[in-house]
Design goal:
49% of the residues are buried. By secondary structure, the chain is an alpha/beta fold. The protein is built from eleven helices and twelve strands. A seven-stranded mixed β-sheet has the order 7-6-5-8-9-11-10, with helices on both faces. It folds into two domains: 129 residues, 3-Layer(aba) Sandwich (Rossmann fold); 166 residues, Rossmann fold (3-Layer(aba) Sandwich), CATH 3.40.50.
Length: 303
């Protein structure tokens, strides 16, 4: 019997992401079955229903994808699905809540690429030793901060309106992923100028269509080497960064900053997500894929 490739899409959200469904089908899955409003308690039963129904051969052509919007919950669902496996009934699981894992991986990989060509005196050509500001405490901001910290950067994550929430996010990143991150609030122009005054890398992960940093704030960034923005909806999150920019000079106080735009990041993100779907579909061994795997592939594709 020739088993079809089936992907079971688990999400705690009310709707399964059409973007993720399209990506899975385009990467070679024959069918994508969405399960919405899934709780952590639902995951073991759904996982075992998926793996036991096809036998050891069919389970290799079965996959589980975890969506949603919360980074910590997606990680917990991934671990819960892994714990529910019963060898030899094991299948691959891939988590990418709100596309945050693959987007963050693409963003940090693109920054690393530019740092290799723009690193200043006493600084390495990767993230190690750099001061990084991540503005935005949503899913992409959280994953970006964790990846940058894991790559050796000194990371500050900033909220526009709540230091309590920023600190809470930073504490979660340390408890869950071992990432040392500082959480702050920077809502007005004065606070933003102070926030980025000595940073080497500025990563804008705010809401679409919202200007986070204008020319006035950027003039305070005297050490800025690279800035990246994931907002593809006008106005840009960082003034002066076009959506397609991939290393274009950016006016800033340092006079040497380079910018990376949303569509340039999105091009890598697209390839990473599709590549991980293909990897788990074709693997003979069960894989557990998260932001670390996304980052590894993003580094290859960006280079």
């Amino acid at each position: 019997m020739e088993y079809r490739y089936i992907l079971h899409f688990l999400t705690p959200s009310r709707h399964a992401s059409p973007f993720d469904v399209n990506m899975a089908l385009d990467s070679g899955y024959d069918a994508v079955m969405p399960y919405t409003q899934v709780t952590i308690d639902d995951v073991p039963a759904l996982t075992q229903d998926a793996i036991f129904s096809r036998g050891p051969s069919g389970v290799k052509r079965t996959g589980i994808f975890i969506g949603g919007r919360e980074v910590e919950l997606a990680h917990e669902m991934l671990e819960t699905a892994r714990a529910a496996m019963v060898p030899p009934f094991e299948t691959s699981v891939f988590a990418d809540p709100s596309g945050a894992y693959t987007t963050a991986a693409a963003m940090v990989a693109e920054v690393e690429r530019l740092l290799k060509s723009s690193s200043g005196a006493g600084l390495s050509g990767d993230m190690s030793g750099h001061r990084v500001v991540v503005y935005g405490i949503g899913p992409v901001g959280v994953c970006t901060a964790v990846l940058a910290a894991g790559a050796g950067a000194a990371v500050t994550i900033a909220s526009h309106n709540s230091e309590v929430r920023a600190r809470s996010v930073a504490a979660m990143c340390q408890a869950r992923f071992g990432a040392i991150i500082r959480g702050v609030c920077a809502g007005d122009s004065k606070q933003k100028r102070a926030l980025i005054a000595d940073c080497h890398v500025l990563l804008a992960c705010g809401k679409a269509g919202v200007r986070l940093f204008g020319h006035d704030e950027l003039q305070a960034a005297h050490d800025l080497q690279v800035a990246a923005d994931v907002n593809a909806v006008p106005p840009e999150g960082i003034e002066g960064i076009g959506a397609m920019d991939r290393g274009k000079p950016l006016p800033a106080g340092s006079a040497r900053a380079l910018g990376v735009g949303a569509l340039a990041i999105g091009n890598i993100k697209f390839k990473v997500q599709r590549g991980l779907f293909e990897r788990m579909r074709l693997s003979e061994q069960p894989l557990l894929l998260d932001f670390r795997d996304a980052f590894e592939l993003a580094r290859e594709l960006s280079a």
